Known about the structure:
Layout: E1 2-7, E2 11-17, E3 32-38, H1 40-50, E4 55-61, H2 65-76, E5 84-86, E6 93-98, E7 104-106, H3 118-122, H4 125-129, E8 131-136, H5 142-154, E9 159-161, E10 180-181, H6 185-192, H7 199-211, E11 216-220, E12 226-229, E13 234-237, H8 250-263, H9 268-282, H10 295-302
Parallel strand pairs: 1-4, 1-8, 2-6, 4-5, 8-9, 9-10, 10-11
Antiparallel strand pairs: 2-3, 6-7, 11-12, 12-13
Helix pairs in contact: 1-8, 6-7, 8-9
The structure holds alpha-D-ribofuranose (RIB).
Alpha-D-ribofuranose (RIB) is lined by residues 9, 11, 13, 38-40, 43, 94, 106, 108, 139, 248-249, 251-252, 288.
Amino acid sequence: MEDITVVGSNMIDMQVFVKxxxxxxxxxxxxxxxxxxxxxxxxxxxxxxxLGSDVNLITVVGNDDFGKQQLKNYKKNNINTKYISIxxxxxxxxxxxxxxxxxxxxxxxxxxxxxxxxKKIREYKRIIGNSKLVILQQEIPLETNNEVIKIANxxxxxxxxxxxxxxxxxxxxxxxxxxxYAPNETELARITNLPTSNIDEIKIAAQKIVDVGVDNVIVTxxxxxxxxxxxxxxxxxxxQKVNVVDTTGAGDAxxxxxxxxxxxxxxxxxxxxxxxxxxxxTIMKRGTQKSYLTSNEVAALQK
Length: 303
Ligand code: RIB
C-alpha cells in the first residue's frame, strides 16, 4: 500500500519578483525572475515525498519540453511516475508575481491539466483504493475530482480536498463526502457565502462545513496558523513567527506535510502542528518547490 496518492495539477512556475505591479498600458522593470516546478498537486506530492512518504501522483504533463522536465523532476523527488501521462497540448504554466513583502499573485494556464478526465481516473481505481490518503485540489476538471471522491469512498480511503483555487461551480453538496476539507479563509468564504474576516467568523463558517458531513475542516490562516473544526472540537493551532521572503506554495507545503505526518500515524492535531512548522520554514526562502525541505533538513533546523 502506498502512503499517499495525489490527483492533481502540474505547472511550470514563472516567478517575477516585483517592486511594483504595472498599471494598464504601463511597463515596469522587475529586479529578478526564477523558473521552477509548481502546480498545487505536484507541490503537495513533492512536499510529502521529501519528508519520506511513498507518493503516487496522477497528473497529465504537456507534450513539450516543460512536460519532459516535469517528469525528470518527479523522478528526482522519488515520486512514483507510473500514473503520469503525457497529454496532447502544452504544459500548464503559472506566471507568479511576488511582492517585496513576500505575498504573491498567481495566474494559471491549465494546458494539459485539463486532460485529466474521469475516464483516465477510472484506469487508476486500484491505485486510489490502495492508498492511505488521497489528496485533491481544484486545478483539474471538477468532474474528475468528483470521480476520485466516488472511487475513494467506495474503497473507504479518506480524501483530503484542498479547494484551491476557489471555484463558483462548487456547492456544499459536492464536498460532503470528504474526510478533510482544507480551505484558506477566502476559499471558506466563497463556499459558505459567509464572512471570514476574523476568528469568530471563521469558526462559524467552518462549522457550516462540519454540518454538511465533512469530518474535519482545516482552515489555513497564514501567519495566524490553522483552525481545526470537527464534531468534537474547534481549535486554533498557532504557527511560529518567521521572516517572510516568499509565500508561494506555502499552503501546498502545509497540505503535503500534513498528509505525510498524518499517514505516518500522528494524530490530527500533532500533524497540524508539524505542518505549520514545515510550511513556515518554506516561506523563509524564495521559490515554490525550491523552498521545500527534506525530513533531515527539518530535523537539522529544529535542533
Ligand atoms: O499554490 C502555489 C501554486 O499555485 C504554484 O506552484 C502555481 O503553479 C499554482 O498552481
